[in-house]
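batch_manifest entry 22 of 60
target: Fe2OG dioxygenase domain-containing protein
source organism: Hypocrea atroviridis
requested by: lab member K.T.
priority: normal
notes from requester: please return tokens only, no post-processing; we will run our own comparison against the previous entry in this batch. if the run fails, retry once and flag.
--- input ---
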Amino acid sequence: MAISVYQHLNIPVVNFALARTDSEENRRRVAKELYEAFKNVGFAYVKNHGVPQEVVDEAFAWNHKFFSMPRTDKDKAPRPSASWHHRGYSSVGREKVSQMIFDEASISAARSVPDVKESYEIGRDDEEASLPNIWPPQDILPGFREFFNKFYEVCYAAELEILRLVALGMGLEEEYFIRFHKNRDNQIRLLHYPPIEESILRQGKAERIAAHTDYGTITMLFQDDVGGLEVESVNEKGRFIPAPYIPNTAVVNIADFLMRWSNDELKSTMHRVKAPPSLAAEGDEAVMTKNRMAKARHSVVYFVGADLEKTVGCVPGCWGPGRPKKYEPVNAMEYIRMRLQATY
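--- output ---
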């Protein structure tokens, strides 16, 4: 249920606790709240999401440990050159997030304003995984691999509950989306945004993450309290509203694959990471000239994707007379590779 102090953000806060009671009415109530958030905004803050806070805290501790290592050690788990092999470490400037641009000239123009961040990507860690993980050597960061394999499983359990509630909110049977998410073809992303002169960000000479939508089904974001996440206003295209840290919540959003799958019934909303608004008002030249540094920011992201071999058309109930299908059927792997091609 929404918390009134945050209603100006237009991002509801949905509490999953009621969905775990014995009341079917309560479960449907939570499912309706989540569905309406995703239909109208594309985002929700989720409380009691299923990932214990102590596990989230440990994930951030490992995040800090990894990015605090010397560059030479981080480079021992390098991201491969192939754009589709989304695993391992990417140094600052390697990735440039873009939004639905695929021609070389447009991609080159977008890259002229770099994303100032570094990242590390982890997928399922088994012999049948389509993309093998690239781990830092055990002697450099002992315990890192073991923790994130456990974290992956905890997040997967949380993912299943979200997918069941989304299905219920859409009037589908609860297992509808689960059937397309059995292989755990998901991704953990650790992110570090190093300190940077705030004026550089405000003048558009660099970005932390450019405005974009996500690629897959849904995204769970665990952010620190530094700030900087912004979500595009539902009512005013091009206007971005801060989405600050709310303790004990995950920011959950719809991604492009599910928007397409639902025939645009669910909204994949543009978002970005900028300089935190608390440091200075936009255009505050007095502050901008002081070379004030935007603080380092860390986040942990769990991207949910459909099983890579699955091809999807349109969710039942999302099309019919007077409401034609907007998209051709699409294969999950082909779609993700197309989007990654423009990013690296």
